[in-house]
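Z., the sequence and structure:
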Amino acid sequence: MRADPPTVPSAGSRVGAGWRRDPLPRDPTVTAAALLPPLTALRLFTTWRFAPLLLGTTAAAAVGYGVAARSRPGWSRSRAVAFGAGLVVTVLAGSSFVGVYDDTLFWVRAVQNLLLLMVVPMLLALGAPLTLLAASVPRDRRPAWRRVLRSRAARLLTGPFAATVLLVAPLMVLYLTPLYVATLRDGVVSGAVGAGLVVCGFVYFWTRLRIDPTPASTPYPVTLVLTIAEMVGDAVLGIVLWLGPTLAAAYYLGLHRGWGPDPHIDQVLGAGVLWIGGDVVGLPFLGVVLWLFSREDARRARATDAELDAAEARAAELGAARTRAAEATGSDPAAEPAPSRLWWQDDPQLADRFRPRT
């Protein structure tokens, strides 16, 4: 029984979100090897393609962010660099060798999906784009914007467990359902999936990093625990792809590719990319969360110190006022009641900890 010849990727422009090529007619005499040369170490750096929709979208995002940042004096340069890096990685995912060979090699598609779900959204979220967007909203529409962010639906969708689902579920659904084959054969489906990965990843990192205001606030210690649990999800998917049957076997065999790994080894390599690569990307994320956690803890310590200093200053001022009043009336200041003390100043465990800093 002869299978239908596969849709063969071309080197032309793509449709959808800019991550898929227009399919050529189903001609069994045309093979991917005739259109794409073997992927060598040199071609990892020299293989590029022009993707108008992708480049136009990223350019518009860069211009919009730049204009909004210039309108806010003192905007952090590091945030702008992070956002720009996210746009650069987006272009690399669609226009470099990753965007050219993603329909031909399983592991290349895995690299692309990892970039779109984790690397790009994390960098974009570090740029705090929603803060700039909120500042650019007309004043008469800002109450509506705040109502949306404070709504019950927004709090549920940005809660800690909902964010975990947004990170773990997309790749599970993609690889364990017929959706993966559809992304190989249909440019619109592939573009929609690519955009969906970026959106899901952005919501996750937005709510976890909390650089932009969020409807639901997840404490950083909880984020650290959940991140470790989410790494298990990467491992589960990697093991399933590593030990499971070959996905889209008919498609990859139908390409008649005479170079590179066979479909099974190709899938094993892709499983390693998703498993190990996901953990590697998670390490800098954990570092950022720890840094933000330390900054938040330092801010709280400064606020506590300021509150203690203010309370002690008020107590000292009250004592001085009583002394002056006693001297004016000729009474003994020692007979006056001692000024009240904060309860933790007499606690043996807390007195040293909350002693005002000199």
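The chain has 15 helices and no strands. The CA atoms of residues 164 and 229 lie 9 Å apart.

Let me know what you think.
H.
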